[in-house]
Records
---
Amino acid sequence: MIKVGQGFDVHSFTDHRPLILGGITIPHPQGLAGHSDADVLLHAITDAVLGALGKGDIGTHFPDTDERYEGADSAELLRTVWKMAEEEGYRVGNMDATVIAQRPKLASYIPDIRKRVAVLVKADLSDINVKATTTEHLGFTGREEGMAAMAIVCLVRD
């Protein structure tokens, strides 16, 4: 059995907050605004897993109206959703994600992000791909107002 899901997320930049992306802290003068830690990449991945499982989206499971999730670690949210996948007998076939941001430049952080994501979803590193792109100074990401991320995941059950 194979199931595929996709996820997409957007957060604006804000001052006085660390930038957390893919579960790691990236040096940058601004972080991302959100009810949780606003890890745009892990949110997209979490939504992709939920989509593959047919279980709604991150806002359904972890609403921003619930004080329990204020400042929540997005890695823990993904772990919770990943347990749902495991309970149904799924593992990662492969995962591909893209971060869309003019700045900061992310190439040097991608290996650590891939390792962190692989650990969170208990996958082989070779099954996790993360890349980054700019929008050539176009749109809100090009104006450095925020970041976006998209992810697709293939879940496999033997």
---
Amino acid sequence: MADVTIYTKAYCPYCVRAVALLNSKGVQFQEFRIDAQPELRPQMIEKAGGRSTVPQIFINDQHIGGCDDLVALDAAGKLDPLLN
């Protein structure tokens, strides 16, 4: 199974949608809430190549992007191979 990391905020609808998609796939992931741990925000921005919005999603240390990017990968049939 893939190593999945997602940076989120509690009241972010895109974060909720991305987490729901990952949960629907049965994926275990590590979630970092940058609203609860603001010290992680600079780390997220650096890893995401300067992107500062949430969610920021990484699969096996590959930056996937945000919720729309994750949904697009799934719609194109490219998410499941990354997760397996």
---
Amino acid sequence: MRSDLTAFLMMQYKNNQSVLVVIYAKDTNRVLMLQRQDAPDFWQSVTGTIESGETPKNTAIRELWEEVRLEISENSTALFDCKESIEFEIFPHFRYKYAPNVMHCREHWFLLVMEQEFEPVLSEHLAYQWVSPEQAIQMTKSSNNAEAIRKYILKDK
């Protein structure tokens, strides 16, 4: 019975494994940034929690649909798995979403390279902007989001 209770309580909290998907448009050399509903001064790329039974890639595909209504197939070459994950400290004001004493999250990085910009259909965010990679780095409060843009978009510049 105790393990059932523990399992039930754990379902109430977010998993501390997530994905980050940086969306880049080749035609304009710009990055899509999204404004969070729960923290309007917080701009970021597509992110999401890995759900039970999902791989990081499955999560990236699901989150792209949920957050910007972009349908990507499992074998799309536009979605690049960076094969990189980082552990970071969860911002204190977001920790209530996680189990007690969970202070860190592991984030798996992806890059989605689009031929051109598109107009996202937002369901989880207040607004979007297509901006230069440098501007995206300045906009986000997430140091990992900034680092992923720096590493995978600005690497050739």
---
Amino acid sequence: MEQQRIIEQEMYRRAIEFIPKRYPKGWGGVAIIHSEDEQYFTSVSIETANSSVDLCIEVGAMCEAHKCNVRVTHCLCVVRDDENSPFKVLSPCGVCQERLRFWGVDVKVGVTTPDHSLHFVTLNELQPYHWTNAYPEEELEHYRTVLT
């Protein structure tokens, strides 16, 4: 449990140090993903003139982890409204929850809390009534790539 807390604190530290470097003024956001082999992947959202083609902040880091063929254990998304605003943790949207489930229901994600504390829950805790509960695990397993 202590190791989990160390990982979560390290992810948050990396996020709040990265945002002012990448976004010195105005809005800023970053996602940090931790993998089973102790790597950290960082990504930002793609800024486009057509917001209908934007991607979530987490997507780049997920793609990097997938490219490296490593299992994701944690995901954290942190934003701020401008350079004078406090940092906020954003729970993953439903689409990102679906993407993260590729690595299993035990992936831990940072979630938004009323007291703005750093808190992680598993995907299973975040969405206990997920649609995949209607199917046996072995039916779903063939959709996942076996990670070595």
